[in-house]
Amino acid sequence: MKRLLMLLPLVIFLVVAVFLYRGLFLDPSELPSALIGKPLPAFSLPSVEDEQRVITAEDLKGKPALVNVWATWCVACKVEHPVLNRLAAQGVVIHGVNYKDDNAAALKWLNEFHDPYQLNIRDERGSLGLDLGVYGAPETFLIDKQGIIRHKFVGVIDDRVWREQLAALYQELVDE
Amino acid sequence: MKRLICGALLGLFLVTTAQAAIDTYEFRDEVERERYRTLTEELRCPKCQNQNIADSNAPIAMDLRQEIFRMLEEGQSNDQIVDYLVDRYGDFVRYKPPVNAKTMLLWYGPVGLLVLGFGVLTVILVRRRRVEKAPASTLSETERERLAQLLDKKDS
């Protein structure tokens, strides 16, 4: 018994050490989304291309997809854009949410850099962004064919992120 | 003349302060202003993580301040407003996390450690006292006699 008690400080030290060691590799800017497992929030917004065309959450159902929150004022989005173009060419379904942006600038951007989005939601006032818990573009949500949010990625999707994190998740949703 | 210049200068001063404020909200009364203040101070900015919504200049904090103001205007309670934000951004936005299974350790851990520390301290103290008392009773009768003999010898 006494001997066990003597080991106690060592055990406590090891537990704390493991905790702190793990803490070294956590990214504090990565917040778990409060929306995982919940359906896309209801919305009714025009599309970027055509003000008359109204898009609702219903329109995003049917196929698993990436929902990419982007804006022309977002520098990182420019880095991400060619990757999205490539993914779209491979047949990945990507929808866009043009978040708090000037629509004319958005149209110009899509003309110049190619448009990877199947549906492009015009969220000029940021209401959908707020409901999605967006705190900085680019952010990308993975939704399944019922429109349920299954995963959220904050930051630039580059080839490595896609290969190592998102591709498998997307494939899983396609196979479901 | 002097008064006029002073007045004009004062007027100028007022203009600059009015422009310096980033967002100005008109509250219905002091209570609402106070509620706005507590809410924006208790809620954390999701983007710049070590600032609350009141302090941060990030666009998202500005939006959230506006949103909080809007909900106050609509007459929603503090709990409703906090829940609204937690639904979107998670418990992360609260500087005062709720007590639940996940945050148990956070809330009661320090108290637990304090109790544990006192426990260990008590055990150590009790043991020490026992050791101090011990010598008097550990000598047997014969040993005590022998000790007395030895002490006597030394005295003579």
From TrEMBL, chain A:
One GO cellular component this record assigns the protein to is:
outer membrane-bounded periplasmic space
Disulfide bond among keywords: yes
Task: Write out the GO biological process terms.
Answer: cytochrome complex assembly
State whether keyword Signal applies: no
Query: What membrane topology does the annotation report for this chain?
Result: Single-pass membrane protein
Entry's localization field:
Cell inner membrane
Q: Which SUPFAM superfamilies match?
A: Thioredoxin-like (SSF52833)
Annotated signal peptide: none
Domain Thioredoxin: residue ranges: 34-175
User: Which terms are listed as keywords in the entry?
Assistant: Cytochrome c-type biogenesis, Disulfide bond, Redox-active center
One Pfam short name: Redoxin
Q: Which GO terms describe its molecular function?
A: disulfide oxidoreductase activity
Q: Which family does it belong to?
A: Belongs to the thioredoxin family. DsbE subfamily.
Q: What protein name applies here?
A: Thiol:disulfide interchange protein
